[in-house]
Amino acid sequence: MNCYRKVTDDLYWVGGNDRRLALFENIHPLYHGVSYNAYVLLDEKTVLFDTADWAVGRQFIENVKAVLDGRPLDYLVINHVEPDHAATLEEILLRWPDVQMIMTAKAAMFLRNFGYTLNGDNIREVKEGDTASFGKHTVAFVMAPMVHWPEAMMTFDTTNGVLFSADAFGSFRSLDGKLFADEFDFDREWIDEARRYYTNIVGKYGPQVQAVLKKAAKVDIKYLCPLHGPVWRKDFGYILDKYQHWSTYTPEEKGVMIVYASMYGNTENTAELLAAKLAAKGVTNTRLYDVSSTHVSYLISDLFKYSHIVFASVTYNLGIFPPMHNFLADMKALNLQNRTCAIIENGSWAIQSGKLIKEALSGMKKMTVLGDDVSVTINSSCREQNVADVESLADALAADLSK
Ligand code: FEO
Asked: Is the CB of residue 82 below 6 angstroms from any atom belonging to ligand 1?
């Protein structure tokens, strides 16, 4: 059975929800599913904005058919070709072979690279500022390169203020019958998954997101229609403020994220002691994570949230404990920057992890290490002689947070 939602009088959400996918992009765990959004506009001409993943293909096609209600599909606007959106393109072409497709030149090239046979006569390639009219509605195409693929564009409906924003403003989580962000308690139920989506999928491309935000500021947006997650029709300031922070690598909150790598619990114990001393000094906006048992996508997400990060790692084979090493590599890959850090190192002999973590941080932008290069050194376990150093680190963090 079809299951679509109305966005405006003549615009419909025709996507689907996937609660079976374990790993988004075969990397990021999904515990609450994900939606693949597509939209149909019923004007003098009919227009489909993007397609959907195979996982929801049947539902998607049923929805499109139901909304068209026997009318032909005249246009297909492809804002983004990544297969979680373009996978069902051929299902559309099979059913409506005369549909006129609108996309960027790169999108057409990428689709052919993915193996689609496209009739060039049915494709209109567009660039920044080009427009199309479907009757009452005129849309303008806004290039959004590297948000987060090179071919990506957004489409702005100048008639009703709808911005089809591709992956931007998207989120993990299934919609569960609702559609609009104001139908949820977004700040309680969604923000963590929205942040995890942005930071891990788009986080590397902050400058490109900034460029798009500047373009968006010049138009009067009434609806934000992303390819994942809810549609925004109010409270734009809330989500735009989050994007402003994330895309400039500005922390959302003053707080301390302590990430530890511990083999037998002794580095963990030191991290716990630091957290307890911070709390005793009134610093309670803290999070403690075991790097071995926390998926790195959650760590990356909180890195974008908090201002201060403590890395506590045992030495392993004269290097950084591998999960911590991988975490640092992901931080660099995602362009994380502008944070205040501290380091706790441990080892039973030839302690190296602190020095190596410092070196890894020096390869990232605007990372400050508090105090000496290594704040606390533990030899196998935290003992009486180490407590003063942990106390000093807590003092240094508390003082820095109060600035
Ligand atoms: Fe949701 Fe970049 O695809």
From this structure: yes
